[in-house]
What does this fold into?
Amino acid sequence: MNIQTVRISIEGLSPLLFNRKSLMLDIKTDANLQKVKAEDGLEYENRIFREKAHVNAEGFVVVPQTWIKRSLVETQRQNACPIKPPSAARKNATMKTQLNAGFFCEDCVVQYKGSGFKKEDLVPYRSICTIPSTGGSIPVVRPMIPAGWTVDIDFQIISPEVTESVLRELMTWVGIFAGIGEWRVSNGGQFGRFKVL
It folds into this structure.
C-alpha cells in the first residue's frame, strides 16, 4: 500500500468555536469542574469555558481530526457538491466512501499570528441556549478563537481516488459551505468558515 502525505493549510475567515462533548465525563470526575452552590449558571460557564476546547498535552488548542473528516464527509451529503469519484459509474455518486476510509490525519495545532494558540488565550463567546425538554433557556459560554486562525493539516492518503488536487478542491468546498467546529456554517451557524491557502 502506497501512502501519500499531503499538507493543506487553511486560514479562518470567521471565528472558530469549540464545545468539547467529553467535558461532561471530566465534570463527573474532577471536583474543580463541578458547579459550586454559590455560582449561578453564567458564573459557572465563565469559570469553565476554556475546558470546552480541545487541547493537547502541551496546552495548545487543536482542531480534532474528527472535525476535518466529519466536514469532508458532510459535504458529500450536499447535492450541490460537484466533486465526484473518478471511477463513478452512477451520476449521483459521491466521494463519501473514499473519504471515510481513504485518508487519515492527526489533531492539528491552531496557529494565530504565527504561533500556537494556548488554552489561556481563548476568548469567551456568550449566548443563550434553549433547553428542548423544558423550552427554557440557559446562558452558555463557549471558547472561541478570532478570525485569522490557521491550521496545517497533514493528510495521509491511502485511496488512489483521493488525490492531492481532489482533496484541495474538497477542502475549498468545506471551507465555503460547511466549515469546522461548533455552530459551523453547515449547521446554520456563522463559525468555522475558512479558505485554503
